[in-house]
Design brief:
The protein is mainly α. It is 94% helix and 0% strand. Helix 1 packs across helix 2. The termini are far apart.
Length: 50
């Protein structure tokens, strides 16, 4: 039974790790898009906020 518990903890750790990695990659990609298209990003931000 301890083997299944270890697998559950390992699976949970892997899920949290991949979720964090995916979120970091998405935020990095968005930052690159904003840097590349700053005028369009500024208009979009103004539209979303105002």
């Amino acid at each position: 039974m301890w083997f299944m518990t270890c697998i559950v903890y390992l699976g949970t750790f892997l899920q949290i790790s991949f979720l964090t990695l995916g979120l970091a990659a998405a935020l990095y990609y968005l930052a690159e898009l904003v840097e590349e298209f700053s005028t369009i990003a500024r208009r979009a931000m103004y539209f979303l906020v105002a």
